[in-house]
Amino acid sequence: MFIVKKGDSYTAKIVDLTHDGMGVAKIDGYPLFLSNALVGEEVRLKVIKVGKNYGIARVEERISDSPERVALKDKLGFQTGTMPLQHLSYEGQLRFKQKQVKEAFKRIGHLDVEVELTLGAKRQEGYRNKAQIPLQNKKGQIETGIYRARSHDLIPMTDYYIQYKEIDQNILKVRDILREAGLEAYDERTHRGYLRHLVVRYSQRCQQLMLIFVTRTSSSEPLLQLLDRLTKECPHLVSVVQNIQSEKTNKILGQKTKVLWGKDYYEEDLMGLSFHISPLSFFQVNTEQAERLYQEAIDFSQVTAEDTVFDLYCGLGSMTLPFAKKAKKVYGIEVVKEAIEQAKLNAQLNGIDNVHFEAGKCEDLLPVWVEEKDLRPDLIVVDPPRKGLDPVVRESILKVQAKRIVYVSCHPGSLARDVADLVAGGYKVEKVQPVDMFPQTSHVESVVLMSRVAPTK
Predict the structure, then answer these.
(1) pLDDT digits over 73-88, tens only?
(2) What does the pLDDT read at residue 456?
(3) What is the model's pLDDT at position 50?
(4) Quick one: three-class SS letters along the chain?
(5) The whole model's pTM is what?
(6) For residue 371, what pLDDT is reported?
(7) CB 32 within 8 A of CB 18
(8) Do residues 384 and 417 touch, judged by C-beta distance below 8 A?
């Protein structure tokens, strides 16, 4: 048997792309994964890592180029993993994401469904409204940037390409203020140092900026001394927040948050509604595409003024409230209590009173709503985390026997698994629409419409 070894060089053709956008070459059947390589390209490669099932290689020379190849925006986008598809034309990216969804349905769900071409974004750069930036000490001063892929080696950056330019500019302003103040970044090896991360949230529509400093200790004094400069030098600043993460962990945010200056929220406009967003609240990071995603969900649902709707995993109400403008009544469930309180406030802010929010796990509350309160929705909307629906939630959804289900997903694999279970329980897939929320990356969101075909008991 032919054995591929680290350091070997080969000439090979790229035959496929992995789900995260790496090129695939095969040497005697053994797969090698490479960044910055497209299907059909012939490359000279060098093996840099060998595993049991696959290896990692580096492109030493491209012998031929794919017609889908475009000029790189920034090589650092490969090193950090922030832009793994930047070398692929945008039309090619949309087809790639369509294929990911289609293959997940076939491979995981064992369903042969038609998948629409991915809905593209008007902005393929500068679209993110949030950044989570690690801080490290480099050459005697604090540095901002992004970790090298699969490491905690910080690569300093000044242009992140996929974030709002206002966010990039404020990262540099804050970095300079921290440097001049002589503050020390956290060192994960020694568990010493003060500043761990800088989180920046910004609304271009409302022109409001929130800065969140993640610190190792609960002391606020070092940050309080910076407030005068921050408020003078960071345009549109409305909130300065401290989050304490004292654990030895890779998790960015801790449980405790303190507002040091300004409001405990910033404002965003979405779907003709106003939202207050607190420091730790989940909100789609691409505001423009979130509107397209939610509009697709509303259009798919064919919701009317006679419909009762369940919105599972509702967050702060960013999809619940647009549905409430069309429906008779909407019930929302969310596990994060603070998000439910925010959802209630957002409903009041927009004068929407045909909503009911409850805090708790969907797998706990949904059976109660169905079996004890006898609530029977016409439509169920789900927007779960990457892991998808809990088995208890899937069972409860099937017991409800709603006429229609709209599933909004951020992970094709869990989507395909859940949809297959719902199909087995009496539903039919009507339409699958991928939406590109993250241009230049391999991530894809999807909206799926399902209708009940088994007779309602």
Answers:
(1) 888 888 899 999 999 9
(2) 54
(3) 95
(4) CCCCCCCCEEEEECCEECCCCCEEEEECCEEEEECCCCCCCEEEEEEEEECCCCEEEEEEEECCCCCCECCCCCCHHHHCCCCCCCCECHHHHHHHHHHHHHHHHHHCCCCCCCCCCCECCCCCCCCECEEEEEEEEECCEEEEEEECCCCCCEEECCCCCCECHHHHHHHHHHHHHHHHHCCCECECCCCECCEEEEEEEEECCCCEEEEEEEECCCCCHHHHCCHHHHHHHCCCEEEEEEEECCCCCCCCCCCEEEEEEECCCEEEEECCEEEEECCCCCCCCCHHHHHHHHHHHHHHHCCCCCCEEEEECCCCCCCHHHHHCCCCEEEEEECCHHHHHHHHHHHHHCCCCCEEEEECCHHHHHHHHHHHCCCCCCEEEECCCCCCCCHHHHHHHHHHCCCEEEEEECCHHHHHHHHHHHHHCCEEEEEEEEECCCCCCCCCEEEEEEEECCCCC
(5) 0.94
(6) 85
(7) no
(8) no
CA distance 52 to 141: 41
CA distance 275 to 343: 9
Q: How far apart are CA 130 and CA 277, in angstroms?
A: 12
Round to whole Å and give the CA distance between 271 and 290.
Answer: 9
Q: Are strands 329-334 and 308-312 parallel, antiparallel or unpaired?
A: parallel
Please choose, from the candidates 34, 33, 40, the residue with its C-alpha nearest in 3D space to the C-alpha of residue 68.
40
Written as one letter, the residue type at 408 is V
Residue numbers in the chain where pLDDT is lower than 70: 1-2, 454-457
Q: CA 337, CA 256: separation in Å to the nearest integer? A: 14
Contact between 118 and 289 (Cβ < 8 Å): no
- Residue given tokens 């789609």 in the structure block: 284
pLDDT of 150: 84
> pLDDT at position 454, please?
67
pLDDT at 455 (0 to 100): 65
| CA dist 137 → 81, 134, 184, 194, 221 (Å) | 22, 10, 7, 11, 20
Angstrom distances, CA of residue 394 to CA of 114, 363, 415? 23, 9, 12
Catalytic positions: 410
**81 close to 149: Cβ distance less than 8 angstroms:** yes
Q: Smallest Cα–Cα separation from 199: which of 218, 215, 188?
A: 215
pLDDT given for residue 24 in this prediction: 98
Domains observed in the chain? 9-69 (2.40.50.140), 97-122+286-452 (3.40.50.150), 130-270 (2.40.50.1070)
Q: Would you state the structure tokens that stand for residue 178, as one six-digit string?
A: 């921290």
